[in-house]
Structure formats: C-alpha cells, structure tokens
Amino acid sequence: MEHSAPDEKISIRELQRNAADVFDRARQGSSFLVTRHGEPVGRIVPPDPAEEAIAHAIAAGVLDPAVLADLPSAAEAADMTPEPSDPGTRAGSVEIESLRDEEAR
Fold it and tell me: Whole-model pTM?
C-alpha cells in the first residue's frame, strides 16, 4: 500500500475563494480536509483511477452497470473457492499469460 501525504486543511471560506485551484490540485493527487470553525466537515480527494476506468467503460458501452451490480464484492470473492478446470483444459490465467507472451513477441 502506498503512503500518502496527510490531508491539507482548508476552511470553507478558503475553498470558496480558491475552488478551481483546490480541485486542480486534487486532480493531481492532493487531498484536503475541509473545515468550518476548525471542525472537519468534509474531504476532497483525488479521483480513484479504477472508478474512473469503470465509468469510462460504462460510458463507452463496454461494461453494463446491471452486470456489475450482480458481481460479488472483493470480500465475497475472497471467500469463494475457484471451480476446477475441465480435464485437458488450461486455466484462464494461464491462457491469458500465453496470449500476452505471444503479443510481446
């Protein structure tokens, strides 16, 4: 897991005055803790690259959101036992590796 810098504190007033700059910096990886009278009220974080990729794939019609909703969560998937491959076939991961090796040549 990569270590990220602590959130920069910014008041609501500073955010109102500098919103474009704050969001430009968030797009570049900065995180902000938004405060009101010194108390935290929200957080501005950079976009998650995985979520952005999924959103683009949905917008492009590559992924169907209804299908995604039916997929197991990471926690659920971790508890699943993989189904064995049929005799005489290769596991999907092995097949993908061989396709990648062929493309690299």
Answer: 0.55
Cα–Cα distance measured from residue 41 to residue 33, given in angstroms and rounded to the nearest whole number: 8
Task: Quote the CA–CA distance of 77 and 83 in Å, as a whole number.
Answer: 12
- Are the C-beta atoms of residues 42 and 53 closer than 8 Å to each other? no
CB 33 within 8 A of CB 40: yes
- Measure the CA–CA gap between 26 and 47, rounded to whole angstroms: 8
Question: Do the bridges between strand 39-44 and strand 32-36 make them parallel or antiparallel, or are there none, so unpaired?
Answer: antiparallel
H helix runs in 1-88, sequence order: 12-17, 19-27, 49-59, 65-70, 74-78
Compute φ and ψ for 9, nearest 5 degrees. Answer: -80, 135
Q: Give tens-digit pLDDT for 89-102.
A: 877 888 888 888 88
Q: Which residue has the higher pLDDT, 3 or 54?
A: 54
